[in-house]
Specification:
Largest sheet: none
Number of domains: 1
Number of helices: 4
Oligomer: single chain
């Protein structure tokens, strides 16, 4: 189960990174901020530069626990169409 969930996290982290890179490459600051908010659970104010926001979000993404990805971050990004469903799903988690 643990190895399986680690593979799910790897797939999802990769998908979120690609979405962040695409938004950054497109120059879509609003999308970058939305993705970062889903990952970090805080909103970066106007005093933050886009590179600072991306850096903070990717550091948080790398440290993110599975339950956070399962219940909060992934559903928000999936609902908005920023990421697509992954082949694998977590096992051993219950929806709160």
């Amino acid at each position: 189960m643990y190895e399986h969930n680690a593979r799910v996290m790897t797939q999802r982290r990769r998908a979120v990174r690609l979405a962040m890179e695409a938004a950054l490459h497109a120059g879509d600051e609003q999308e970058v901020r939305y993705i970062a908010r889903a990952i970090c659970a805080v909103q970066h104010g106007q005093g933050y530069t886009v590179p600072q926001i991306v850096s903070d979000a990717l550091i948080t993404l790398d440290a993110m626990a599975g339950h956070w990805m399962y219940q909060d971050c992934w559903p928000a990004l999936l609902e908005r169409g920023i990421v697509q469903p992954t082949q694998l799903e977590f096992v051993g988690y219950r929806q709160a």
